[in-house]
Structure of Cellulose synthase-like protein E6:
Amino acid sequence: MARLFATEKAGGSALYKLHAVTVFAGICLVLCYRATHVPAAGAGRAAWLGMLAAELWFGFYWVITQSVRWCPIRRRTFKDRLAARYGDRLPCVDIFVCTADPQSEPPSLVMATVLSLMAYNYPPEKLNVYLSDDGGSILTFYALWETSAFAKHWLPFCRRYNIEPRSPAVYFADSDNKPNDPRTLEEWSVVKDLYEGMTERIDSVVRSGKVPEEMKVNHKGFSEWNTGGTSKDHHPIVQILIDGKDKGALDSGGNVLPTLVYMAREKRPQYHHNFKAGAMNALIRVSSVISKSPIIMNVDCDMYSNNSDSIREALCFFLDEEMGHKIAFVQYPQNYSNMTKNNIYGNSFSVINQVEFAGLDTWGGPLYIGTGCFHRREILCGRSFNKDYKEDWDQGIKTQHRIDQTEEKAKSLATCTYEHNTQWGNEIGLKYGCPVEDVITGLTIHCRGWESVYNNPPRAAFIGVAPTTISQTILQHKRWSEGNFSIFLSKYCPFFFGHGKIRLPHQMGYCLYGLWAPNSLPTLYYVLIPSLGLLKGTPLFPEVCYMTSHISVSYDLH
Ligand SMILES: O=c1ccn([C@@H]2O[C@H](COP(=O)(O)OP(=O)(O)O[C@H]3O[C@H](CO)[C@@H](O)[C@H](O)[C@H]3O)[C@@H](O)[C@H]2O)c(=O)[nH]1
Ligand SMILES: [Mn+2]
């Protein structure tokens, strides 16, 4: 049967290997020189040996990086074959969006993300969007309620004109998207006005910090906030704003709408909430009584969908007859739209996105990086690889139940104590206790025998907001370096934990990130000591000889 995706070697690999061989020779020569030219004691020997140690480290680290550079591959999907083979008989998909704070993550932008996800080119009755609000804020709930109303106009508009991207914020901000045809223009203006009206209302409610009383009568959900409570101390809240199974919930074009759910898990000061991993695990459970789709996709609230075909592309991997049964998750790259002119903080992750993840894909797949990722529910919940296991792509809750009963059941799954004495956060769901919960979760999935796939289509699937200041950048890098290093030092060290479970280059690939933090020490040494040596007149590098026309000048730094 024709494959649903193709795997190709990335171009230029032979050239790269040639280059790597020369670099390797260079490294050997440098180390040789260092080892054979150690100065006498007192003439800078300590500094020299330090240079040797740093160079040994760099050489070692360079070898580690070869795992992800040696033979990158590219994946290409065949959505037309998927369509021909399955038509609309596709699995249900649950989409999880995490937000934490209405002040630093403005609800109007979160809602643009939610709308872009609801508008996927996918049968709406099979789509369920969940928003987890770790801020437990009535402002975010209000914004989502507004969104549920606007979606009735936005979704049919997206479909009718097949627009991209489907985040209204981004779409309307680009004046090139303004249609010329007068009839279309009229509809465009109506939808744009509705969108701007909604955004203004949300922003003004967020600015004032409270929802006007007359708005609160519009939905029973607002009463959840009647009892007081703060963002760190409140009962669990689950509100199904749109029930996709309700035959009466239709958009303005008469089509079914995707299910839309608001969740704020219970928070109490005496219980640790485990940050995003805790929110994700609560979402896994809550969704299991509302939709229970076999596929779970998750994104950060600032990452809108830029490509409405991403679900179908991910399914080309999962539903592929030959390889699909091995694939646990499909990871898309993190792309950003707000890069500073010269990308001075290196936030675009071009090397990771273009090279390293494609390189990791050769050896068993990219890391799970917490956003823009499609998982199989069963595997995220702890299943180990077994070649005879057949996924039930039909699973999911398809019949309508009473909303209030479902909500009550869901709430009981989002309490602080639910996970006590269970394997949640350990064997089941995302792992707790690590600043990069995503990476360690992905590692355990790989070690349970599964593979992952990296999909980087020409049209970016997700676009987010990168840190824009040096302090935000440093904070983020500190968390990532610290998190990956703590994995390296823990019992999950890829070389030991992964031994016999994942291939050596795959272990090396994981360690590349695990060793980011210690890499800083030799780097610091290498930028500081030679400069100090220069001031003191201690040479740490060989003499450089210039050949001018006739005479040869020997140039020494001291
Ligand atoms: O207690 C919390 C803290 C954070 N979040 C959400 O988690 C996401 C990521 O948090 P953010 O503060 O934006 O961290 P980043 O450094 O941007 O996140 C990157 O790094 C994290 C750790 O590796 C991954 O989980 C993320 O997906 C990845 O985008 C956001 O949507 C937050 O709203 C929660 O839901 N609850
Ligand atoms: Mn972020």
